[in-house]
Amino acid sequence: MKGYNGFGTVSIDCKWDKFTIDLAKYLKQKNKDMSESEVQSLVDRTDWDISASKEKGLSNGDVVKVKYDFDKNYLKEYGIVFKGATQKINVKNLKKVKKVDIFDGLELKYSGEGPTIQTNDYITIKKNGQKFECSVTPSSDLQVGDEVTVKYEGDKPVKGIYPKSKTVKLKVPKDLPHIITDPSELTKEDIDKIKEVANKIFKYQAPYTDIFEAWGDKSLIFNEDDREEAYNSKLISPSISDDMFFFAGDDIYKGTFSAAAVKCSANVKIGDEESSFYNKQVKCVVYCVIGPIKRDKDGKIKFEVPNDENDMDMYGSEFYRDGDGSDGNANANEAIKSNWSEDANSGTIYKVSVSGKSKPEVVEQISDDETYDTDEEEY
Question: Which tens digit of pLDDT belongs to each residue from 6-15?
């Protein structure tokens, strides 16, 4: 018996050389006419086995049964019968094991931003001067708040030290940078900031004037003959809706993505004499789209202003004339959802209360199956 208490092992040392010598002598004494080669052949063919009832994971005080198995009839005609009763051996003198919490104070190292945060899939923990190899699962495509399992992969003590527990579950810290994919995470301060940015985009105020103009060429009027650029018109009584849309998912063009679409509306007086709406006020709806919505490591939501018109990943505006679709102008609510559905591989569209009076509500679930045909046609 050897090893540590609770992890002891048993090994059986068979004195095979002495056994075969003794057997050969006995055969020769009983059968004086047998040649040396005949004796050796019989010895070589002798079949026997010794086994233990338990060979590992032993503790002091355990009882191990040792059993002998022979071919009892094999040498009977030569006057030899093997014997050997099952023996019981008490396990003792195994070394003491010290149980240590190897995970105490453990902090994993992370890189990237959620939901594609990564950490090492294997780590080495040093405790009491010894090293413990552990696996970490899952170790990639993590979002803040996700749970990872750290597991000690050894099966025996390291120089007498063994973990109190072989696994521990840790959560990815919420203070890591991440794309917000759950709108319930948005605080009132976050939503106020989103509203502020949307309002500036809608009114084409600095620093969003270039962005507004780059995206602002959507027509208020569906018919191209009546096209009027909205940013050249004065907004009358601009306002922000009580609700906004929030998209979280996998965007075809941007990968993992989230965006808020804040519904702004105003009357616009058409000054184009060629327009059939000349000198009339037309109510328009503009969805100011801001994304991805990121949480920086300081806890604040982060918006990046693009340097030029070619970098439009973060902001945009979608223009619609207010209507239900009957006059050739898409209903604004349905249009923005439709646009996201066409551009997304998968994801969820939420309706979020700007005032915070109600919880986010799922209004549409987008799956790969729903967008596959659309992608084929565009391709």
Answer: 999 998 888 8
